[in-house]
Amino acid sequence: MKTDLPHALDAAHYTDPAQFQREQERIFRRTWQYAGHASQLNDPGDYFAFELHGRSLFCVKDREETIRAFYNVCRHRAHQLVEGSGNKRVLVCPYHAWSYELDGHLRGAPGADKVPGFDLSSICLTPARSEVLGGFIFVNLDQNAEPMDAWYPGLASGLEEFLPHLDRLKPVYSRQVEEQCNWKVSVENYSECYHCRRNHPTFADGVVDADSYDIVPQGYCLRHVTRSVTPDALSYAVDPDSHPRALDYTSWFLWPHFSFQIYPGNVLNTYHWRATNHRSTQVVRQWFAVDGVESGTLLRLAEQDLNTTVAEDVRLVESVQRGLESGGYRPGPLIINPQGGVNSEHSIKALYAWLTEAL
User: Fold this and answer.
1) Which CATH superfamily does the domain covering 148-358 fall into?
2) What pTM was computed for the model?
């Protein structure tokens, strides 16, 4: 009996600039996006500015030590308030010196005392929704979006289970890799391990037990679960008795642009995708250590990952993009095993469903 198998997406989803513009508005500006790490904001008044899909924003720690996110624009005549990072007791606009408290409320405006009816208390910087999860700051430009716990159920408790010192982690190693491909090509590649045995020998034979690899949708999250190889086969040293999860690998991919990835030994690595245009993507990989104290093992693992899995994936995704632009691509059926497993693309089907829902 013939069945209608789910197929891969048409090439236009990855090659059409108009499609990318729709995604900017309907996906990137309506989902939880990674902004930065709390270790960048140690003291009240610390801030950093950042761009989020065509929008200029900044995060700041207020006097009550709450981390807030605002659009980086003065409420007077639209000059940007801050650049880069630093510390300010008061946020002062460089244009006309309107000043704001760290919680965003207008503190003063030169000459305002001479204007009848001018009410300082009625003016505040435009806030963006923000949440801090285990030190990771996320922002959502949709004021009506559900909280992260609704989007990614079980994420907070799951991270704590694998990372007992999550709140003490700080980034110690970072690499930005340019990939000449559509962001979805890169995300889809990350979100299946069907290709791993053939293309990632170090990862598939020296880090994880590929036979146990599976990916499970969990809200708007793809949860990667697997055992590691035996301790003597690991490509780096791990104390198997240091933690109940010391020999496990897991990952939480958060639709659409971020992933927490935990290697055996309870080592945290994050992926942050930045879609720059319809055929170019920046991927920032960061490695974290307790209190920011580097270790030789962590740095060796980071370099191993960069020189093997990362380099291998760049070749793969850029080849896929060239194939999508060839004019000869006709989408084929996905391989979906009802029982899941490493050779199943059920996770890709989930990504397609989220994409279709958003658009």
Assistant:
1) Naphthalene 1,2-dioxygenase Alpha Subunit; Chain A, domain 1 (3.90.380.10)
2) 0.93
